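Final report, Chapter 2: Outcomes

The project's central promise was a pipeline that accepts a single protein chain and returns its three-dimensional structure in a standardized token representation, suitable for archiving and comparison. That pipeline is now operational. To close this chapter, we reproduce one record exactly as it appears in the project archive, with the input sequence first and the structure output second.
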Amino acid sequence: MRWKISPKHWPGNRDARQIDLIAIAALLIVIVAAWRYLDDSTALPPSSTDFIVPSQSTHW
């Protein structure tokens, strides 16, 4: 698919290529931010609560 460059450049009118580049940059920023958030949240030590082992004698 080819980009069409409009000969009319009004103030505030952005080129389609520029909008694509802004969208790609925003998407990359979101991906990197999510990656860093998930990486930091999994690196934290577990909380002080103990793991509860379910009893084997429980009858429902």
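Archive annotation: The mean pLDDT is 76.
This record, like all others produced under the grant, will remain available to the consortium after the project formally closes.
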